[in-house]
UniProtKB/TrEMBL annotation:
Top-rank taxon, per record: Bacteria
UniProt cross-references to Gene3D superfamilies, sorted A to Z: abc- transporter (atp binding component) like domain, P-loop containing nucleotide triphosphate hydrolases
PANTHER family documented for this protein: TEICHOIC ACIDS EXPORT ATP-BINDING PROTEIN TAGH
Classification via Pfam families: ABC_tran (PF00005)
GO cellular component: membrane
Keyword field: ATP-binding, Cell membrane, Membrane, Nucleotide-binding, Transport
GO MF, one example: ABC-type transporter activity
Family, per entry: Belongs to the ABC transporter superfamily.
Keyword Membrane belongs to the record: yes
Presence of the UniProt keyword rRNA-binding in the record: no
UniProt protein name: ABC transporter ATP-binding protein
Positions of the ABC transporter domain: 71-293
Length: 459
């Protein structure tokens, strides 16, 4: 079922040993459409190392920018260079093995989507190679490949053929795909009558109907309602447990921490860090915080020192945020016991006791998480009921409560902030979050340098 065809939206390629670009030593630039394909000799072996299912070597992507359509036409007709060059990716190298799940993070414009499209094969590299083994399925622009005048069912058959599901395969899978999409009778209506959520459900159900060897997901969890998100995360988790290799790009650090064992941070088209998820995300979060503080300082005017401006911006978050739209649950209150007066208030107790109240739809069993940070954004700890084998207590009428206690809070004097999270029953989907909601001061009588007071002994 090898196929070189591409679906403009959800894309899939079913190939054994699929290679996107073959570099030739000393090759002259070859022009295909607008893209010059001139892959220099990559720094490493071309074939993935034993056990690797994906190898990216010396990968680069140049976009050509024209000032006007006229310049573009002139360039095509004369072959001359009438463009400005923008390198979205430069010299990207990594390998992924079977069962690895890699989260991709980076600022807007860092090159994440370009990298995923190059790996999926919907974009050609300017330099370097991508070597892949087995069936590669990409969930990029969900639903973009559907024809609006055809019914959902017709689109399934057409779209399925593009990702390597033949007529017999589709006959076997159709019922399951329609059931997952929950479209019911609407499956026989033209796609142009669907809401965007319905299109997304159909597209996700189709492209994940057959488990791939490599699954590429670009922000798929950001679309659709929470019920759909939950089903997506469960399916992705199942694939991961079965040994599928996953590349997952998301602005949700929570989902990356949940799903991925390695992470890659792209910065200005280059790899800034790659390795165990926690280390890479911590470094990336510190970078995001320093950017936030710099822009808060700029907003607050030059008379406010940088860090104080950042704190001011964080404290204004003490107003409860509105519940997320179409939500299956929402946090309704977050309180800290024994707070004094002042802004921020002083914690009068030695213990930190945080109570989170949440409301969820009937039949839901939620979980609750709490994150504690220094107020200028240095993380201290995150805990959650599902991780600790605990559960919130039902107060009736869909209301739930968890109280978290840190006895003898082992921190030094300083200003701290609490964030609260509401999760689904498996701790996979974030229903609601009150990020950096409650600030407080803590006073420890003996001033010593450091972040925490760890239990310790001398000998
Ligand atoms: N078709 C294109 N033509 C020209 N420039 C492009 C094109 N697609 C992307 N770019 C540029 O390449 C850079 C990387 O874009 P890309 O979409 O890969 O980044 P990203 O990390 O996915 O960003 P975001 O998080 O905002 O989606 C950006 O500067 C972008 O403007």
């Amino acid at each position: 079922m090898a196929s070189r065809r591409r679906l403009a939206g959800p894309a899939g390629v079913d190939r054994r040993q699929c290679r996107i670009a073959q570099p030739r030593a000393g090759a002259q630039p070859r022009t295909t459409g607008r893209l010059a394909v001139n892959a220099p000799v990559p720094p490493r072996a071309l074939a993935p190392a034993p056990g690797a299912v994906l190898a990216v070597s010396g990968l680069g992507k140049e976009y050509r920018l024209y000032d006007s359509p006229r310049q573009r036409l002139k360039s095509l007709l004369t072959g001359g260079a009438h463009h400005r060059s923008h390198w979205a990716l430069r010299d990207v190298n990594f390998e992924l093995h079977r069962g690895q799940c890699m989260g991709l993070v980076g600022d807007n414009g860092a090159g994440k989507s370009s990298l995923l499209k190059l790996i999926a094969g919907t974009l050609q590299p300017t330099t370097g190679v991508v070597d892949r083994i087995g069936r590669v399925t990409a969930i990029l622009e969900l639903g973009a490949g559907f024809h609006p005048d055809f019914s959902g069912r017709d689109n399934l058959r057409f779209g399925g053929s593009l990702i390597g599901i033949d007529a017999d395969g589709m006959a076997r899978l159709e019922d399951e795909i329609i059931a997952f999409s929950e479209l019911g009778a609407a499956i026989d209506r033209p796609v142009k009558t669907y809401s965007s959520g319905m299109v997304v459900r159909l597209a996700f159900a189709l492209v994940t109907a057959v488990e791939p060897d490599v699954l590429i997901i670009d922000e798929a969890l950001a679309v659709g309602d929470q019920h759909f998100q939950k089903k997506c995360v469960e399916r992705i988790t199942q694939f991961r447990e079965n040994g599928c290799t996953i590349l997952f790009c998301s602005h949700s650090q929570y989902h990356i921490r949940q799903l991925c064992n390695v992470a890659l941070w792209l910065d200005g088209g280059r790899i800034r860090a790659m390795g165990a998820t926690d280390g890479v995300l911590s470094a990336y979060e510190a970078h995001v915080r320093s950017q936030d503080q710099a822009s808060a300082a700029a907003d607050a005017g030059s008379q406010v020192p940088g860090q104080l401006a950042g704190l001011g911006a964080l404290q204004s978050a003490d107003t409860p945020p509105p519940p997320p739209q179409g939500s299956r649950g929402a946090i309704v209150a977050v309180s800290i016991a024994d707070l004094g007066e002042g802004d921020p208030p002083m914690l009068r107790s030695r213990d930190l006791k945080v109570t989170v109240d949440a409301s969820v739809l009937e039949g839901e069993q939620p979980h609750i998480g709490v994150m504690l940070e220094q107020s200028h954004g240095v993380g201290i700890t995150s805990v959650a009921t599902h991780v600790d084998g605990a559960a919130p207590v039902s107060l009736g009428n869909g209301l739930w409560r968890s109280t978290l206690t840190f006895p003898q809070l082992p921190l030094h004097s300083g200003q701290y902030v609490v964030s609260a999270y509401l999760f689904d029953s498996k701790g996979l989907v974030v229903y609601d979050q009150w990020y950096q909601y409650r600030h407080f001061l803590f006073d420890y009588p003996t001033p010593t340098p450091g972040l925490v007071r760890l239990p310790h002994s001398w000998s």
